[in-house]
Amino acid sequence: MEKLINELKEKIIKTLNLTDISYDDIDENDQLIGGKLGIDSIDILELVMMIEADYFVKIDNKEIGRKVFSTLRTLSEYILEFSKKL
After folding, report:
1. pLDDT confidence of 73, banded at 50, 70, 90?
2. What is the pLDDT of residues 41-71, one digit of tens each?
3. What structural domains and CATH numbers belong to the chain?
4. From CA 53, how far away is CA 60, in angstroms rounded?
């Protein structure tokens, strides 16, 4: 799981072009949406597209999205759980 969390940190920074955020600024238990990273609903759409393309994981409704994007850890857990079903 730690490998995936580290990979997602890099992808979040790259996907959202967070030039003022470093890898170490992202804690796996910090709130993603509305947290210190400033991620909003538009950013989440970009992240959903990246996750679907890179991990073949579907996040197809708002309720699941809110839960999944709670923290980086919950996102990683969802990706790993979804991948087991493939």
Report:
1. very high
2. 899 999 999 999 999 999 988 888 889 999 9
3. 2-85 (1.10.1200.10)
4. 14
What DSSP letter does each residue of 10-59 carry, written as one string? HHHHHHTT-TT--GGG--TTSBSBTSTT-B-HHHHHHHHHHHHHHH----
Rounded Cα distance, 60 and 1, in Å = 23
CA trace torsion 15, 16, 22, 23 (10° rounding): -40
Q: Which pLDDT value is given to residue 62?
A: 86
Cα–Cα distances (Å) from 26 to 21, 75, 81, in that order, read 8, 13, 22
Task: Decide which of 16 and 83 is more confident.
Answer: 16
Length of the chain: 86
Q: Hey, what are 3's tokens?
A: 């490998």
Contact 66, 32 (CB under 8 A): no
